[in-house]
Amino acid sequence: MTSLDSSKEIKKNDSNLSENHEDFRMFGLITFLIADGMTFAGFFAAYLTYKAVNPLPDGAIYELELPIPTLNTILLLVSSATFHKAGKALLKNKNSDAQKWLIGTALLGITFLICQLFEYFNLPFGLTDNLFASTFYALTGFHGLHVTLGTLMILIISWQTRSNGGRITNKNMFPLEAVELYWHFVDGIWVILFIILYLL
Amino acid sequence: MTISIDNQNSNNNSLQPKGWLRYLSFSLDHKVIGIQYLVCGFLFYLIGGTLASAIRIELASPMSDFMPRDVYNQVLTLHGTIMIFLWIVPVVNGAFGNYLIPFYVGARDMAFPRLNAVAFWLIPPSGLMLVASYFVEGAAQAGWTAYPPLSITTPQSGQIIWIMSVLLLGGSSIFGGINFIATIIKLRRPGLKLMQLPMYCWAMLGTSLLVVLSTPVLAGTLILLSFDIVAHTGFFNPVLGGNVVVYQHLFWFYSHPAVYIMVLPAFGLVSEILPVHSRKPLFGYTTMVFSIMGIVVLGLVVWAHHMFTSGTPPWMRLFFTIATAFIAVPTGIKFFNWVATLWGGKISLNSAMLFSCGFIINFVFGGITGVALAQVPFDIHVHDTYFVVAHFHYIVYGGTVFIIFSSIYHWFPKVTGKLMSEKLGIIHFAITFIGFNLCFAPQHWLGLNGMPRRVAEYDPQFQFVNQISSFGALLMAVSTIPFLINIFLSIKNGKDSGDNPWNALTPEWLTSSPPPVENWEGEAPLVKEPYGYGKSISIEN
Amino acid sequence: MLNKNFYLILIISAVFGISFWIGFNVNLLPSEASINAPIYDELFRILFIIGLIIFIGMTIAVIYSLFKFRKRKDEFGDGIALEGNLSLEIVWTIIPSIIVLIIGLYSYNIYDRMGGMKELNHSHEMMASNTEKIWAGISPASNNEVGSNNLSVEVSAMQFAFLFNYPKGEFISGELHVPVDHKVSMKMESKDVIHAFWVPEFRIKQDIIPGQPTVLNFTPTKVGKYPIICAELCGPYHGGMRASIIVEEESDYNDWFNKNTKTEVSL
Ligand code: HEA
Ligand code: HEA
Ligand code: CUA
Ligand SMILES: [Cu+2]
Predict the structure, then answer these.
(1) Core-most of B70, B123, B174, B207, by most CB within 10 Å?
(2) Which residues pair with C171 in a beta bridge?
(3) C-beta of B251 in contact with ligand 1 (< 6 A)
(4) Which chains form contacts with chain C, at 3 or more CB pairs under 8 Å?
C-alpha cells in the first residue's frame, strides 16, 4: 500500500520548486517492516518463554525433521539472489531478463510453500496437540502467509516488467525495489525462525 | 503511474464535496482528516462517558441493582476499550497530529495521504462493531485487558468481535505512526532542522516510534488469543498446558507503552499552548527533546509493573520497580520546564491556559501515585483496587482529556476562524475540575481500604465515599453541556478571530484561518524559532 | 533580595511542615493485622510525605505564577526571552533521580523485610513434584524457621469461592481459621480462571493462577475477623467472591480444629 500513497506530495512538490524531497516511500516501507518484524518478535518471545517455563507434558510429541526446512532455507536464500539479479537486469534496461528472474523467484517461492505444506501433512502432531505444536504452526503459518503475499506481489510486478507496456522500467524501479526489500525481509525472518524453531 | 494522475486532481477536484459534507467523504486533505478524527473520537467519548455514568450509577449503592452483574462487566470493558482505543489514542495522535504536523514541518500534506485516509476510515466501522456487539450476543466482559483464561471462557462471540475491532484499531494506529514518522523525518521543508521543530513534532515522533515498536506485538498476541477461542489451541489455556502469564507479558509490552502513546502527544500539545499564552519561549527545548526520547526508551522496558502479583520472580520485580520509578525523572524534567515557562511570563488566563494548568496539577498527582504503585511492596496491597483506577483516571482524564479540551480552545480559531466564548469556557473548566477531583480523589481511599476494582457490589461501609465519587461523575457529565453549547454557538455566530488571534509564532498561525486547502498561498514559511517570544523575529520565506 | 529568599525558605518549610503533619496524622489505611502491615505502613507514610511535598510544591508553583505573572489589562508585549538554564536543568534532573533511587532502595529493603525477595521455590515443604513449578508470594522473613508451629493450608479458588483444605486434619472449610502469631503457609491453586487472594488488613495479595501452584505465607498478629477478597476479575460474580479469615487465640483455634476433624466436613 505504501507505493500507492506517496505520489500526491511529489506531484505537488513539482509545482513548488523549493520543496524537492527525496523519495520517502522506501522509508515508509522500512518503518512498516520494522513494525511487522515486531509481530514476529512477539511470537518468538512467546515461543522461547514457553520453552523456558512450560516443559512438554509426558507423551506429547513435538519432533521436527531437518531435511525439508533446510531445503526451504536454501530455496529462500537462492530466491533472494535471483530477485537481486532481476533488479540488476532491470537497471541495465533488460526488461525481459528481469522478468525471467522474477518468475524464477516466484517459482522458488511457490516451491517453498509446497514444501511447507508437505511438511505440515507429514508432521506427527496437529495444531491443537500441544503448546509447541500450536506455536510451531502459528509461527510458520504466519511466515507462510508472508511468503504467499510476497509471491503474489512478485507475480504482479513480473507482469508489469514486461518489455512493451509494462509500468516498471528502470526509470520507475520503486515497485520492484519495494517488493525486493520485503522479500529479503521475509527471508531474514525465515532464517531466524529456522534457527529458533528447528535448531535450538 | 495512473494513481498519481488522479491524486493530482484530488485537491481541486470538483467532484469532491464542498462545505461540511467533505467531512463525511474519503478526503485526502490532512486538515479534513484531522477534524474527522476529532469529531469521531468525541462521539465515542460521549458513548464511553455514558457507559461511565452507568458504572457510577450502579456504584452509588452497594448492591448490584442497576444492571445485572455480567452486563456491568460488559459495560466496564466497553468503557475502557472505547475511551482508550477510540477516544484518547485517535484524538491526541490522529486528530491533532494530522491537523498540525504538516504545518509544523512546512508541508502541504502528510507523507502518505491515502494511507492516512484509510487509517481514519478503519476507525468508525470497528468502533461501531464494538458497540454493536453489546446488542447482539453480549459484548466482551473480561475487562479491557482481556486476561485469559477468563476471556477464553466467557461468551465468545463478543470477545471475538472485541479482538477483531482492537486489531483493526491497532492497524489504524500503526498506519498513522508510519505516516507521522515519514512526515516528520522526510517531509520537512528544506532548511528546517530537526532541532527547530515545534515540540509537538518531537512528541509525535516519540509516540510513533512506540506505536511502531509495540502495537504489532499486541496484534500478534490478540491473534494467538483468537486462535485459542476459535481453533481451541492452548497458548493461554492452562487446561491445554498453556501459560496465562505469557499473555500478560505480551499484552503489557504493548499496553504500557500505550499509556505513553496516550500522554506523550498531550505533552507535546501543552508545550505548544503554554508558550503562546504566557508569551515566553518554551523553557529548555533541548532537555525537553531528550526527556521525550528518555520516556520512549524507558517506556519500553517497564511493562511488568502491572504484574507484581502475577508470580514474577523477585529479581524481575526489582528491575521493573527501579526502571518504572525512573520514568519520573524525564517526566519531571518536562513538568519543571513547563512551570519555568510560566515563570516570568505575561500570562493570559483563558480557557486553554486553565485546562493546561489543570493538566499540570492533575498529572503530577497521578504521576506521584504512579511512582508509589511502581514500588512492589506498595503495589501488592493496592493492585487491582480503586487506587489503581484513581491513578490512571488522574492521568488519562486529568491529564490527557484536559489537554484535549485545552487544545480545542486553543486551535478552534485556527480551524473555524471564530473565537470561542471565554465565559462558557471558564464555566466548563470549573465544573470539570471540581467534578473530576470529587469523582476520583476519594477512590484512592476506597482502594487502600479494601474495595477491589471491577465489582458491581461492595461493602456498605464504602457507600458514602462511592456516592461522593458518583456525584463527581455527575458533575463531569454536566460539564459537557457548556462545552457543547460553546462549540455550536461559536461555530454559528462566534466573533471573528482574524488569522492569528493569539499572536503565536508556530507555523500553523502564519497562514489564514481557516487555512486554504494548500495550507499556504505561496511557499511555506521557514520558522526557525517557533518559540521566539520576547525577541524580534523575522520569518524568512 | 534577602527578603525574597526569606519568603522562599518560609514557603518551603511550610510545605514540608504541612506534608509531614498530614503524613503522620492522616490515616488512610485499614487496621494492621499481620507482621507485614506495620512494615507496609512505614513505606506508605514515607511515600505519602514525599508525594505530598512534591504535589503541594508543584501546585503552589503553578498557582503562584498564574497570579504573579498574569498579564494586566494595560500590559502588552512579551515576557522575558528566557530559553533555558543549564544549571537549573541539572538540578531538577539530579534531585528527582536521587529521590527515586532512594525510594527504590528503601522499598527494596521493605520488600526484603516482608520476605518477598526470598526464593520459595526450593525449600518449600509442600512442593509436590519436580515438574510442578511453585511461584512465590510473600513470606515474612522473621519467624521463618520451619518449625512445627507452622500451619499449612491448601487453598483452592474457583468461580466464585475459596475453599481451604487443612491437610493435617484432612478437612475442608469455607472459612480460614488461623491461630494468632503463627506463620501460615498457603499453597494456592485455581480450578478455572485467575483469582487473587487479598486481605487488606494484612497488606498481602497474590494472584492465584491456574496451572501454577502459588505459595503465600503470612503471620497474623491481631485477633479478629477479616475479609478475604478476590481481586482479579473472574466473571460475573467476581464482586461476590469473598471469604473470611478468622484469627483467634491458639486455644480457640485448636477447639475449632478438633471439632472439625471429628465431623470431617464443615462448609
Ligand atoms: C496516560 C496514561 C498513563 C500514564 C502516563 C501513566 C504513568 C505512570 N504510571 Fe500508570 N497506569 C495507567 C495509565 C498511565 N500511567 C493505566 C491505564 C493503568 C491501569 C491499567 C489497568 O490495569 O487497567 C496504570 C497502572 C499503573 C501501574 C500498575 C498498577 C497495578 O495495576 O497494580 C503502575 C505501577 O507501577 C503504574 C505506574 C506509573 C508510573 C510510574 C507512571 C509515570 O510515568 C508517572 C511519571 C510522572 C510523575 C512522577 C509526575 C511528574 C514528575 C515530577 C513532578 C518529578 C518529581 C517526582 C518524583 C521524584 C516522584 N501505572
Ligand atoms: C482512557 C480514558 C478514560 C476516560 C476519559 C474515562 C472516564 C471516566 N471513567 Fe473510566 N476507565 C478507563 C478509562 C477512562 N475512563 C479504563 C481503561 C478503565 C478500566 C476498565 C477495565 O477495568 O477494564 C476504566 C474504568 C472505570 C471505572 C472502574 C470500573 C470498575 O473497575 O468497576 C470507573 C468507576 O468509577 C470509571 C469511571 C469513569 C468516569 C466517571 C469517567 C468520566 O470522566 C467520564 C465523563 C464523561 C461523560 C460523563 C460524558 C458526558 C456525556 C454524557 C453523560 C452523555 C450525553 C450523551 C449524548 C449527548 C448522546 N472508569
Ligand atoms: Cu475470583 Cu474474582
Ligand atoms: Cu504501565
Answers:
(1) B207
(2) C166
(3) no
(4) B
Using only the alpha carbons of chain A, give its radius of gyration.
20
Q: How far is C93 from chain B, CA to nearest CA, in Å?
A: 6
What phi, psi does C195 have (nearest 5°)?
Answer: -120, 180
d(CA A141, CA A127): 11
Q: What are phi and psi of B98, to 5 degrees?
A: -65, -40
B10/A8 Cβ within 8 A = yes
Asked if residue B3 has pLDDT above 50, the reply is: no
Q: Is C216 on the interface with B (CB under 8 A)?
A: no
Q: How confident is the model at residue A17 (pLDDT cuts 50, 70, 90)?
A: very low
How far separated are the first and last CA of chain A, in Å rounded? Answer: 36
CB of B55 shorter than 6 A to ligand 2: yes
- How far is residue B223 from each of residues B89, B162, B231, B251, B537, measured CA to CA in Å? 21, 12, 11, 12, 53
- Residue in A with minimal Cα distance to B210: A35
Across the interface, whether the CB atoms of A5 and B115 are under 8 A apart is answered yes
| CA-only gyration radius of chain B, Å | 23
Does the pLDDT of residue B21 top 50, yes or no?
Answer: yes
> ipTM of the assembly?
0.90
Q: What is the pLDDT of residues B343-362, one digit of tens each?
A: 888 888 999 999 999 999 99
| A135 contacts B7? CB cut-off 8 A | no
Task: Say how many residues make up chain B.
Answer: 541
Q: State CA B78 to chain mean position distance.
A: 16
Backbone conformation region of residue A193, classed left if phi is above 0, alpha if psi is from -120 to 50, else beta: alpha
Which residue in B142, B328, B383 is closest to C205 by CB distance? Answer: B383
- Where along chain A do its domains lie? 25-199
State whether residue B152 is helix, strand or coil. helix
Q: What is the DSSP string of C150-187?
A: -EEEEEEEETTEEEEEETTTTEEESSEEEETTS-EEEE
Min distance A8 CA to chain B CA atoms (Å): 5
A4:B220 CB<8 A = no
Rounded Cα distance between B360 and A102, Å, is: 58
Q: How far apart are CA B142 and CA B248, in angstroms?
A: 13
DSSP assignment of C88-145: HHHHHHHHHHHHHHHHHHHHHHHHHHHTTTS--TTT-TT---SSSPPEE----STT-S
Q: Per the omega criterion (within 30 degrees of 0), is the bond before B149 cis?
A: yes
Nearest CA in chain B to A165: B1
CA distance C228 to C248: 16
What is the distance between the alpha carbons of residues A109 and A121, in angstroms, rounded to a whole number?
Answer: 19
pLDDT at B16 over 60: no
Distance of alpha carbon A158 from the chain centroid: 16
Q: Tens digit of pLDDT for each residue in B41-88?
A: 999 999 999 999 999 999 999 988 889 888 999 999 999 999 999 999
**How far B139 CA lies from chain C's nearest CA (Å)?**
13
Could you tell me if the CB of C45 is within 6 A of ligand 3? no
pLDDT, residue B436, reads 95
CA triplet C104, C105, C110: central angle to 5 degrees?
Answer: 95
Residue B404 CA to residue B407 CA, distance in Å, equals: 5
Measured distance CA(B119)–CA(B97) in Å, rounded: 13
Closest CA to C191 of C142, C129, C147, C234: C234
Yes or no: domain A25-199 corresponds to CATH 1.10.760.10: no
3-state SS class at B452: strand
Give me the pLDDT at residue B541, please: 43
Whether B369 has its CB under 8 Å from any CB of chain C: the answer is: yes
Grid coordinates representing B34?
484531522
Residue A170 sits at the chain B interface (C-beta within 8 Å) = no
